[in-house]
Specification:
Length: about 120
């Protein structure tokens, strides 16, 4: 399974950050897997943003929930992330990651994409 993030590398403050995760080698509707977005600001630790599961249910980090939307396109095997009203504090490397429910661990990571919020 391979995960590849894509989207603009520069977003202006107050705009919406939009990223796509293209999944190959496996279906996003396969039972037992959640599809997560995780980010890492420069010099800081990893922060979980949210996930969408194999059935299409979502769960978000409470601290980001009001600004976050995760969706999917099963025909394209895509996961999308939208984060609204961004500020420079949202500057980070954004990762698409698969969570294996049965094993209780993340088993596949995308390479990550840097998004900078700046005017």
């Amino acid at each position: 399974v391979q995960l590849q993030e894509s989207g603009p590398g520069l977003v202006k403050p107050s705009q919406t950050l939009s990223l796509t995760c293209t999944v190959s080698g496996g279906s996003i509707t396969t039972n037992d897997y959640f599809w997560s977005w995780i980010r890492q600001p420069p010099g800081k630790g990893l922060e979980w943003i949210g996930w969408i599961d194999y059935s299409g249910s979502m769960n978000y980090n409470p601290s980001l929930k009001s600004r976050t939307s995760i969706s999917r396109d099963t025909s394209k095997n895509h996961i999308t992330l939208q984060l609204s009203s961004v500020t420079p504090d949202d500057t980070a490397v954004y990762y698409c990651v698969r969570w294996w429910v049965h094993e209780g661990r993340y088993d596949h990571w995308g390479q990550g994409t840097l998004v900078t919020v700046s005017s």
